Amino acid sequence: MIRERIRENLGSMSPSFQEIGRWLLDNYDAIGFSSVHDLSKTIGVSNASLVRYTQALGFKGYKQFREAVQEEVKTKLHPDSAVTLNELDLLPVKKQLQRLADNEINNLSKTLKDISVPSLLEMVEGVFSSNRVFISGFGVSKNIMQIFEYALTCLQIKDVHGITGSISDYSPKLRNITVNDSLFILTMPPYSPEAIHVATQAKKQGAQVFLFTDSANCPIYPIAKAVVRCANNSLLLTNSYVGMIAVIQVFINMLLLSSKGSLITHMKEIYHSEQQGYSFLKAQKEGLL
């Protein structure tokens, strides 16, 4: 995919080319409908710079680059679904619910259609090749992080550690991250300073950094080994997390499929332990113990 090629080359390019690359990643669908003049003007660079950038990606020039992108452009939201907050407020409650639901369905659909399979596979390999797995999220992302942490803990592949809270809370865990560990970061705008700090420090300590986010504008994007982007279109000026939750579920299932049955055995053992626990509580409540 052209989008993946842009992302992979982002870190090795000059600052001016990185700026172009980040803009293209965030406005990918616009490329197929823009001339080199219009696009360079929108980005704020010269025509020649944009052409040289496409050549650095391996294309003869902008025309060939645009034609390649046109083949990959995905279906965007239906125009009728793009409404302003004021318009939404004027709709009957049933229509409001329908518009909001349709928007989240579109976020989910776009996330899964545009998902980078190589990036997900790299993340799967990152889990299996690590000594320990750290997962970090702040704000609302903390709740998704906890679901992710619990699911990975149940798989019993590696020791799993959550990193969240204040700097004082997470510093002892962050300090212990080493070159043999992996860190998964979950973050959405406005990109928590704590998340940026955790990712930057873990990278300095040699850990593999994997990122779930919505945009190439995320400050962690350039230092991540692999990135999965989650569509985040909102009608109410808030983040949409439906895509991120779905991707986490897909990722967990990919780990199960990659385990050749051993992880499923672990899951069954945990289920058996749970049933023993519930039986114990029931017996205690009934005075049988």
TrEMBL record:
Q: What are the alphabetically sorted keywords of the record?
A: DNA-binding, Membrane, Transcription, Transcription regulation, Transmembrane, Transmembrane helix
Looking up Gene3D superfamilies in the UniProt record yields: Glucose-6-phosphate isomerase like protein, domain 1, Winged helix-like DNA-binding domain superfamily/Winged helix DNA-binding domain
Q: Which PROSITE patterns match?
A: HTH_RPIR (PS51071)
Please name the Pfam families in this protein's record: HTH_6, SIS
Query: What is a single molecular function from GO for this protein?
Result: carbohydrate derivative binding
**Which residues are in the HTH rpiR-type domain?**
1-76
Q: Does the keyword Transmembrane apply?
A: yes
Q: SUPFAM superfamilies annotated for this entry?
A: Homeodomain-like, SIS domain
UniProt superkingdom = Bacteria
- Supply the PANTHER family for this chain: GLUCOKINASE (PTHR30514), RPIR-FAMILY TRANSCRIPTIONAL REGULATOR (PTHR30514:SF18)
Q: What is this protein called?
A: Transcriptional regulator, RpiR family
* Annotated source species: Sphaerochaeta globosa (strain ATCC BAA-1886 / DSM 22777 / Buddy)
